[in-house]
From TrEMBL:
Domain GGDEF, first and last residues per copy: 309-442
Protein name as annotated: Diguanylate cyclase (GGDEF)-like protein
Gene3D superfamilies xrefs: 3.30.70.270, EAL domain, PAS domain
NCBIfam families: GGDEF
Matches recorded under Pfam families: EAL, GGDEF
GO molecular function per UniProt: catalytic activity
Length: 715
């Protein structure tokens, strides 16, 4: 396109200038000097014949003041025209002013009349022809100006957008490159145009051959082409370019062309690659994350159905990872995860995938296993590398890894079955409490069958209303009064009451766990509102929630609507979350949900505080109003000075940050006394009460309202 702009500009540049037009007027009229004047805003000479170049400004000004001569005024004039007299020496002493209009401009020919005069008819013919010529000339000048502007705009567009224009003559093979094409390839504009083969050779193999085929196809079919490929510029830089092309059929010169643009998209391409990497990799270990692993897992199983080669899934878990965090700190935990990632990556083959799929969970995908021997060799290498020696703070800690493996198609032919099989094998190894790897065995399925039976029973219990909240009191040590309760799920199975631990597989299930959670919360809100009816001091309610529950649109909305339904008797709601919940939120979606719920009046508590890797960070970034101390800091605290120091520090942190602190797990009077001395105020533990049914809670509160002291170990 730029080539055609320049060609048109060159052609217009050959059009007659106003000087030439004035000279033609002198010849046509057989007159004296001729000047062409632009009358607005002030008379300005824009063209003159050769012998009018010496015309002075005063002559022009006085000549423009005389009356103009119109073509109609010349009809019937037989005598020569002598023009208007001017007080100057010849040839400037007589002038004929002929008005013109061209391109919206008011122009006039100043024709200086010789002593013999001018023939009127000749003047009339000239005026008619000249007006047409002036109009055409003005239009040509406007086109020229527009083309210059378009060329400047086009050049600016090319530079700004890094877009070059190119064209290939399909008959001669001649190439045309715009200036930006040369710049993109690190060549200087004005160099000789490249040949087709030279242009293709900038593309890195094998893309050059691919592009050649695509261009030939586009030239034959006239279908548009749009591809993105890497090039190596003349200076050796690697760039990424987008090539767009389409055949243009013959125009005025009768030649078909393949024309298009080439855009340097290196910056956008690199940015997209960084975004893709970030979305599909773990930032700490730089391994693929769960999403990328799942995609490769599906692809590997699809390919296995064609190649018939085995695929093996290995799940690896870091034993006692939380203990490393608790004793050595989260920096040591991070270092451990990086060591595990490096060890596993070096253990497997280059075409295998190692991913971090959870906090301390890794997954390995072994593909294209052509024989049992190939599988055994890789599994043996993994098995022999499951001991990690972590050097930290002048000490070395031995950390064990447990692993479970399953093979397709022997143990399943889809993601779900293989994952379940590998998970069962992993669970069997973790029970041994030593570094080990087990390949799935059908005998492991007994546990899976029991789990399936429990899931069926749990669904029935939920339908029958047998999964209900029990309430563990939260007590103000100073007053001895119950200030709140935590609702905990219990399964009433005949005369037996099952704790959440006994049906944890149902609670961990994405669908069933969410249904149980909502049912327990619904009932707890209604029951505590019933207790609060008429009470001066409202009893607070705390509930647990997983990441999956919080990310469901229905969960927080359900809580909000239920609280609204019970009205003013509704308990202040606190949702307890663990650090693991926040860890599973790399993109911040869960944090957004938490902030939104907090704005609507729902409080949040950080449960098991002190057990994770980033407790203080979570306090600063989330709307946390309460901390619950991990019960492990309370076990044997009366005999452990180190735990006492940690507990005192946590209490001080809560006081400094203005957060309510609840200490969980107190079971003895000595522990309660020590917590009080350390500055603790609120306790939730078996010393005061286990989780009790609704009716028992009502009786306990009635006794408290009657002035009876809270009995120890109620329920």
């Amino acid at each position: 396109m730029l080539k055609y702009f320049n060609a048109a500009l060159t052609k217009l540049g050959r059009a007659q200038p106003f000087d030439h037009l004035a000279g033609m007027a002198q010849l046509a009229l057989d007159s004296g000097p001729v000047a062409l004047v632009d009358l607005a805003p002030a008379p300005t000479v824009i063209g003159c014949s050769d012998d009018a170049v010496s015309i002075c400004e005063q002559v022009v000004r006085m000549a423009c003041d005389v009356d103009t001569v119109e073509v109609g005024d010349l009809d019937g004039v037989g005598l020569p025209l002598t023009g208007a007299a001017l007080p100057f020496e010849p040839p400037w002493n007589a002038v004929l002013v002929l008005p013109m209009v061209g391109g919206g401009r008011r122009l006039a020919f100043l024709v200086f009349v010789p002593p013999s005069g001018l023939e009127a008819r000749r003047v009339a013919h000239f005026v008619t022809a000249a007006r047409r010529q002036v109009a055409e000339n003005a239009l040509t000048q406007r086109y020229r100006s527009d083309l210059k502007r378009y060329i400047m705009m086009f050049d600016h567009l090319e530079r700004t957008a890094n877009i070059g224009v190119w064209e290939c003559d399909l008959v001669s093979g001649a190439m045309f490159w715009s200036d930006e094409m040369f710049r993109i390839h690190d060549r200087s504009p004005g160099e000789p145009m490249p040949s087709v083969s030279d242009a293709l050779n900038y593309f890195i193999a094998p893309y050059n051959k691919q592009l050649e085929k695509l261009l030939l196809s586009a030239a034959v079919t006239s279908d548009p082409l749009d591809v993105t490929m890497p090039i190596r510029t003349a200076s050796g830089r690697k760039r990424t370019v987008r090539v767009i092309a389409q055949r243009q059929h013959a125009d005025d010169d009768g030649t078909d062309r393949l024309a298009g643009v080439l855009q340097d998209v290196t910056a956008a391409h690199e940015a997209n690659e960084r975004l893709w990497w970030t979305a599909n990799h773990d930032a700490l270990t730089r391994l693929p994350n769960r999403a990328l692993f799942a995609d490769r897992f599906r692809t590997a199983l699809d390919r296995r159905r064609r190649t018939k080669h085995d695929v093996c899934l290995v799940l690896v878990d870091v034993d006692d990872f939380k203990q490393v965090n608790d004793t050595l700190g989260h920096a040591a935990g991070d270092r451990l995860l990086c060591l595990v990632a490096e060890r596993l990556r070096k253990t497997v083959r280059t075409n295998d995938t190692v991913a971090r799929t959870g906090g301390d969970e890794f997954s390995i995908l072994l593909e294209d296993l052509e024989s049992p021997g190939a599988l055994d060799a890789v599994l043996e290498r993994i098995r022999s590398n499951l001991d990690i020696h972590l050097g930290w703070d002048e000490q070395t800690v031995l950390v064990n890894l447990s692993a479970g493996a399953a093979v397709a198609p022997e143990h399943g032919d889809n993601e779900h079955d293989l994952t379940c099989a590998a998970d069962l094998a992993l669970y069997r190894m973790k029970e041994q409490r030593r570094s080990a790897l087990a390949l799935y065995d059908p005998s492991f399925g007994q546990a899976q069958q029991e789990r399936a039976q429990l899931m069926v029973a749990a669904r029935k219990a939920l339908r029958d209303g047998a999964i209900v909240p029990h309430y563990q009191p939260q007590v103000d040590i100073a007053s001895g009064r119950i200030v709140g309760v935590e609702a905990l799920a219990r399964w009433i199975d005949g005369d037996e009451v099952r704790t959440a631990t006994e049906f944890s597989c149902a609670l961990d299930d994405h669908e069933l766990g969410a249904q149980i959670g909502l049912a327990v919360v619904d009932r707890a809100i209604v029951e505590i509102a019933q207790i609060n009816r008429g009470r001066e001091r409202k009893l607070a309610l705390a509930v647990n929630a997983s990441a999956g529950e919080l990310l469901r649109d229905s969960f927080l909305k359900r809580i909000g609507s239920r609280v609204e339904a019970v009205g003013r008797d509704a308990a202040p709601i606190t949702i307890e979350i663990t650090e693991g919940v926040v860890f599973d939120d790399p993109h911040g979606r869960l944090a957004q949900e938490i902030h939104e719920a907090n704005r609507k009046g729902i409080n949040f508590s950080l449960d098991d505080f002190g057990s994770g890797v980033a407790s203080l960070l979570h306090i600063s970034t989330l709307p946390i109003s309460e901390l619950k101390v991990d019960r492990r800091f309370v076990i044997n605290v009366e005999h452990d000075l180190a735990k006492q120091k940690v507990l005192r520090g946590i209490i001080e942190v809560a006081r400094t940050l203005g957060l309510r602190l609840i200490v969980e797990g107190a079971e003895t009077a000595e522990q309660v006394r020590l917590i009080t001395e350390l500055g603790g105020r609120y306790i939730q533990g078996h010393y005061y009460s286990r989780a009790i049914p609704f009716e028992a809670l009502q009786r306990l509160l009635a006794e408290e309202d009657a002035g009876m002291p809270l009995s120890v170990a109620a329920g």
